[in-house]
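Exercise 3.2. Students should predict the tertiary structure of the chain below and write it as structure tokens, then compare their answer with the key that follows.

Predict this chain's 3D structure.
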Amino acid sequence: MTNPPPTTSPLDFAVELVQAAGDLLVERYFRKEKGISIKFDGTLVTEADLEIHELFQERIKQQYPHELFYSEEMHYEAGEMAADPHIWVIDPIDGTTNFALGLSIWGVLVARLEAGFPQLAAMYFPLLNELYTVQREKGAFLNGQRIHTHPPSADQPFSFFACCARTFRHYDVSIRYKARILGSAAYSFCCLARGVAVVAFESTPKIWDIAGPWLLVEEAGGAITTLGSASPFPFHPEATEFNHEFPTLAAASAQLLEKARLQIKPKG
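Answer key:
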């Protein structure tokens, strides 16, 4: 017996996934006990992360049974590559530390890759009421409204540089814009895509942190690359270490990106 064809488009399905997960996570967020533990890499995981992982895995396998599911909260085994060229890359909670501490900047990330490159994504930050959606060659959107990057201009005198907590620990930074540490890798790049930040840098993101934001930045007119590291795309799970880090730099324009590359240097 074959599975019936999906009744919604892949992007609509991704939106349904992140919104369902977001509603569930908001309820979990307001619980006093969040079931926090430490993973092997020293990062936090909550019971909610694992719950959303299971939810996504079940729904994706039901809707797209021949496509690969790849999540932060799993351990991929070599040889599990699906024959289908599509891969669903999931981060159940991007900004888990914020979630655990009771801060509002955290979200649910779903991206679908084809032949190793992101083709669509939905990223939902429920407490901020911000849903980012993107499809290759169809633009980037926030709550259904098209968004664009905005290089610094006379009518926007105060611009900021979004970065992670590890940036100043491991890099010498001479970017002149005000720095803001938001606690969510994806949200840093979302701020860039919608024209709030002009440069964004995350020093240790994994594939699930950047698959959707990478496409969002490109479709919003920005420029994005890795800093001193191989490109994450085309991504093939059997050829990439599970926890591989891709230091990622993005800017509102190609010119700003090249300038920022010279202003972020590894220490030592």
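Discussion points: The longest strand covers residues 86-94. The longest helix spans residues 10-29.
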